[in-house]
Amino acid sequence: MEKKQTPLSYLSFSAFAWVVGLLIFFPIFWMVLTSFKTELEAVSIPPSFISFDWTLENYAEVQERSNYFKFAMNSVILAVGSTLVGLVFAVTCAWAMAFNPTKRTKDALLWMLSTKMMPPVGVLVPIYLVFRDWGLLDTRFGLIMVLFLMNLPIMVWMLYTYFKEIPTDILEAARMDGATLPKEIIFVLLPMALPGIASTMLLNVILAWNEAFWTLNLTTSDAAPLTAFIASYSSPEGLFWAKLSAASTLAVAPILVIGWFSQKQLVRGLTFGAVK
Amino acid sequence: MKRVMGAALCALLAGGVAFTAHAETKLTIATVNNGDMIRMQKLTDDFTSKNPDISLEWVTLEENTLRQRVTTDIATKGGQYDIMTIGTYEVPIWAEKGWLAPLDNLGDDYDVDDLMPAIRSAVSKDDTLYAAPFYGESSMMMYRKDLFDKAGITIDGRLTWDKTLEIAEKLHDPDNGVYGICLRGKAGWGENMALVTTMGNAYGARLFDEEWKPTFDGPEWKAALDMYTNILGNYGPPGATSNGFNENLSLFNSGKCGMWIDATVAASFVTNPKESKVADQVAFTEAPCAVTCTGANWLWAWNLGIPMGSQKVDAAQKFISWATSKAYLELVASKEGWANVPPGTRMSLYENPKYLDAAPFADETLLAIDSADPINSTLKPKPYVGVQFAAIPEFQGIGTTVGQQFSAALAGQMTVEQALSAAQASTDRTMRKAGYY
User: Fold this and answer.
1) Contact (CB, 8 A) for B327 and B333
2) B42 → chain A, closest CA residue
3) pTM here?
4) First to last CA, chain B
5) pLDDT of residue A270
6) Which of B:26-85 have CB within 8 Å of A?
7) Could you state, in order of their start, the residue ranges of all structural domains in chain B?
8) Are A236 and B81 in contact (CB < 8 Å)?
9) What's the mean pLDDT when you consider all of chain B?
10) What is the pLDDT of residue B19?
11) The complex's ipTM?
12) At residue B228, does pLDDT exceed 70?
């Protein structure tokens, strides 16, 4: 029997949700605020909240020192490219695992996930050597391959979960009507799993956008994305928080905007299986 | 038809040759983000206008990322960088491994003899430069004249750590937001270990004996670590275990430190009114001694080196020669003022009255760098090169582990004896594994 929610419990849940939300948002808010301070104000103790001399000098310096749009364009290409390539492989893998499982499907899924548990630095040198020998260092193509392979287990897992929710009968009916395998996937399976695919894509874009190990170690300038842009503003000797905050704000702005506009889709996709 | 094709091929080849002759050499330079390096990036028009056939691509990275990135690249001969910014820790190790190209063509007017002897020896092997110093630093004490005057303290000669402890006690006034002394407490081979090793040197300690055995179980290290935990634990700011260079710089610039012992380059930050609230109240003196002054202050330099196997050695040497020359110092002075020239590499800078006028910290910086000797930095003989580090590949790991144990002692999570015993055991294990004995 469903319990009726009292106004008090509603209020406490709302208050709790707000507190958690604000706690999560606070670092981003503080970063944006710091980007408008001078270096001295950024580290002053006690920190000033609103009453400081607001300045745009950090943004001006970041613009002067770095080609932001080049880094941002690389981030977009890497995130979108690795997601699209990953999707092609993940959809076919997930289809096979969800609708034509074998005795070893569960083991294969677990094994795929276990590759995410290995620290990336453990394979840095071998991958670096492969990239060097194949001429892939500092290329977008090489990095798209690494990012797509890195996120493939998560994509397969997510899509597998969504595909499992789709009744096999519908696919069988399509086959009875003469649909070939590609048509079955493209015209029957994909439209039904669209929310799941959308959220998988969005999550993968975010993961690829934020990836900072391979993007820093396999690029120098031509393929360097926004992670390299941010890394260039941390200083071993000297104050740097305000400029770093300005660079970080510029780096997260596009993904924040995308996340804001697609939050409904993202939440719907992520809870797709749970609410069935 | 054959004739037409032949002519076209010739034209293509000729065009190719002509294109090659005018092709631009692009140098990719990996560097850290600090004021002097950023200034150099802004001034590179001067270099490219004199060398129109060379273009520059800068890759600026955070120090630890840079170290990991360039080490991977040079060890695997990745060839991603033509010039690398490396520290005095890497230069002797990489030169020994044959990873760096010798800098033997820096030009007739480079004046290599003008380089400070200590810095020059730190980046040379068999009298050949393997990297050129861009800026150098030692360590010294920065202190608040106003607080010293108020407390009636005068400095007569070089301070000892015991005297420094007394002064810290007098200046310590946490109720009014002033702490007696600020020192590095953050764990790391380039963080707290840089300072604690110089303290160890001053107390007569060394990292390894002549047989490469660690010496953390000796009475000298005990005395040094007792002093470190006592002075910083009792008269330092709260949460000192999180403080590195930048955190202490913020504290000092906010007027919260009576004394601060750290890199000489900090002097230009703490005397800059745009960055420091106490810019006009700062004075400088040498780092304290204890039983000896040998090795009581460190030596570090950021240098420009060329990875072995680079296809652009000539162009890279041209750039390095430009960036580390006397003419470059004058260029910076003409554009940004004498106070902003990269310090600590050339003796002529410290004979220049314009620089001495603009930089009130010049004499102490020179004194500190001159007195630091990476070969003879301990009272007892030692097998390694380096004042605050040992230039062996294992030191990064050792320094970080030992730094964590010292930081734990500072935080009160273990006693000084326990920290030293753990440091001795872990270092002994590493050195045995590495085959030193």
Assistant:
1) no
2) A65
3) 0.81
4) 76
5) 65
6) 28, 30, 32-35, 38, 41, 57-63, 65, 68-69, 72-73, 75-81
7) 25-137+300-358, 139-298+375-433
8) no
9) 90
10) 42
11) 0.75
12) yes
**CB-CB under 8 Å, A138 with B80:** yes
CB contact under 8 Å between A221 and B266, yes or no, is no
Position of tokens 């330079």? B29
Beta-strand pair B132-144/B282-286: antiparallel
What 3 state SS string does B283-322 have?
EEEECCECCCCCCCCCEEEEEEECECCCCCHHHHHHHHHH
pLDDT tens track for B309-353: 788 999 999 999 999 999 999 999 999 889 889 999 999 999 999
Contact: B246, A238; criterion CB under 8 Å: yes
CA nearest B277 in A: which residue?
A40
What does the alpha-carbon distance between residue B365 and residue B373 come to, in Å, rounded to a whole number? 14
Domain B139-298+375-433 in the same topology as domain B25-137+300-358: yes
Residue in chain B closest to A219 (alpha carbons) equals: B80
Q: Name residue B390's amino acid.
A: A
How far lies B187's CA from each of A247, B10, B195, B220, B431, in Å? 27, 65, 11, 21, 21
Give CA–CA dist A138/A209, Å, rounded.
17
Domains (range + CATH), chain A: 66-232 (1.10.3720.10)
Mean pLDDT of A84-107: 91
The predicted model gives B7-16 an average pLDDT of 46
What length is written for chain B? Answer: 437
SS3 B112: helix
Q: What is the pLDDT of residues B107-144, one digit of tens each?
A: 888 999 999 998 999 899 988 999 999 999 999 999 99
Q: What is the CA radius of gyration of chain A?
A: 23
pLDDT of residue B12: 44
Domain B25-137+300-358 sits in CATH 3.90.180.10? no
CB contact under 8 A, B246 and A239: yes
Superfamily for domain range B139-298+375-433: Periplasmic binding protein-like II (3.40.190.10)
